[in-house]
Amino acid sequence: MKVYPFKNVVAMSHMLLQPYVSEAQVLVDMTCGNGHDTAFLASLMKDDAVLYAFDIQDCAVARTKERLDSLGLSHKTVVYRQGSHDDLVGHIAEPIDIAVFNLGYLPSGDHGIHTKSETTIKAIKICLHKIAINGIIMIAAYPGTEAGAQEEKALRRFLQSVPQREFDVSLWQPINQIHCPPVLYIVQKRG
Ligand SMILES: C[S@@+](CC[C@H](N)C(=O)[O-])C[C@H]1O[C@@H](n2cnc3c(N)ncnc32)[C@H](O)[C@@H]1O
Question: Keywords in UniProt for this one (predicted)?
Answer without folding.
Answer: Methyltransferase, Transferase
